[in-house]
What we know:
The protein is an alpha+beta fold. It folds into three domains: about 1-65, K Homology domain, type 1 (Ribosomal Protein S8, Chain: A, domain 1, 2-Layer Sandwich); about 70-145; about 145-235, Ribosomal Protein S8, Chain: A, domain 1, CATH 3.30.1370.110. Helix content is about 55%, strand content about 15%. Helix 6 links the parallel strand 4 (about 150) and strand 5. The longest helix is centred in the middle third of the chain and has 33 residues, at about 105-140. The radius of gyration is 28 Å and the shape is extended. The relative contact order is 0.09. Residues about 235-250 and about 260-285 have low confidence and may be disordered.
Amino acid sequence: MERVIEITRVQVGHVVGRGGATIxxxxxxxxxxxxxxxxxxxxxxxxxxxxxxxxxxxxxxxVARQEKPDxxxxxxxxxxxxADVLGARRSKLFDEATARRxxxxxxxxxxxxxxxxxxxxxxxxxxxxxxxAIAHYNNEGKGKGDDYFDMxxxxxxxxxxxxxxxxxxxxxKPSGIVTEFEVxxxxxxxSAPGKKQLLKAATVTYLKAENIPFxxxxxxxxxxxxxxxxxxxxxxPTTTAVAADASAKMNxxxxxxxxxxxxxxxxxxxxxxxxxxxxxxxxxx
Length: 285
C-alpha cells in the first residue's frame, strides 16, 4: 500500500528531523517506509494499511504543527497574555496622566505616572516569567541538553540574555572541553513583516564579538564551537541590553515630564528673598 502527501520545502526539514532522527523514529514505530521524493512530497509505503495510515498520521501532525507552530507552550502563552494586559493598562495610565497634566492638574498626573511605573514593573516581571517558561518549553521541556538552544517564541533582548548565560555555562566547563552548541534562531517564516532574521543577525553579531567560531547549518540554525575555560566568564553587556537600558531611561524621562513642577515662591516673596528680607519665612505657593 502507498500514500503520498505533498509538503513544502520548509516542512521537509521538520519531517526528516535533526540527522534524520524524526523520519527514522516514524519508520521504527509504525513499521512503514517513509521517503522524501521530488515535489517535494512524502511517500509512505508498507505491507499493511494500518502501518501506512499510522505513519501518514504522524507526518500530517508534523505538517500541521509547522503550519501553525506553538512556540510558547500553555504556560508561556498565558504569561505573555497577562503581560500584554499589564502593558495596555500602563499605556492607558500614561495617556490619562498626560490628559490631567494638560488640564493643569499636576498632582493627579504625578499619581497616575507613579501608578503606570508600578504597572510597568509588573509587566517586565511577567515577561521575564514568560520568557523563562517559553525557553524551557522549547528546550529542556523537549529533552534538549546544554548543547542546544531554540530561541523560538523569545523576543530579541530575552534571547540574547539567555544566549549569553548558556555560553557562560559552556565556558565554565573544564578547560579544553569542546561543545558543539546548536543555536536555533529560526528562519523567520512565521515572523511579522520586517522582523525576519532579527534573532539570527543578533546571534551572529554576538558570536563574532565573543570570538566564538560558528557555521551556518541552515537558514534558521547555527552551530557554534564553545571551548571550556574552567571558570565562569562575566559577559559584557550586549548592544541589545544597552539599548534596552537606554529605552528604560528614556521612558523615565518621559514619565518625569508628567510629574508636578517644583514648588514656586510667590512673586512678591521672590523679590523679598532676593533682597534678603524673608528671614527664613518665605511663603511657598
